[in-house]
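This part of the workshop introduces the protein records we will be handling. Backbone structure tokens are a discrete shorthand for how the chain folds in space. Once this layout is familiar, the rest of the handout is easier to follow. The record below serves as our worked example for the rest of this section.
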Amino acid sequence: QFLMANKLDTAMWISRLFTVYCSALFVLPLLGLHEAASFYQRALLANALTSALRLHQRLPHFQLSRAFLAQALLEDSCHYLLYSLIFVNSYPVTMSIFPVLLFSLLHAATYTKKVLDARSSNSLPFLRNLLEKLSANQQNILKFIACNEIFLMPATVFMLFSGQGSLLQPFIYYRFLTLRYSSRRNPYCRTLFTELRIVVEHLIMKPSCPVFVRRLCLSSISFISRLAPTVA
């Protein structure tokens, strides 16, 4: 009854579980490397479906207008719909599947607890214990996802020069990264950029750091800072 009363949430729960399943079979290619590539695409397609459903839930009344598009781009679900479309037809990259896998796992775990509560307050204690541990580590998982989002930017450039990516991919991914940096709901991308900058500046200011390395790092920090969007 609980599942039927929340059909859209249940559909997203199922699609997230399927995303976790496909992502796991890509990361751990138990069925062979050829099958792993197909599971990579299935995971991203399932994530795109989940993101589209979530976006519909957040903005139920679609309008073909600039204002609606601007509002949609503020939603995290729209960001990951774009993310899935960027990588679904590209060369499989293990780093790109981790944000999809972990976000799906966190959201699926949250809804699974609701399903268990609807069934019985004491049902499946072992599973509840696992879900509680996952919830306790949520902040570290979100930071790891943000770290993946950041380091995928140079990875897309490397893929371009190695012949495994398209010319447009780094530019479209840069747009995705600016959306994540400006996210209202998830500040971890901004936080990681700040933390990485502090760590790098601390390291290069040590006397043992060569001058040319210090200058290169400072120039890189200045360049990246200029590319960062303004956050209200």
In short: The chain has a mean pLDDT of 88. The radius of gyration is 20 Å. Residues 178 and 229 are 6 Å apart (CA to CA).
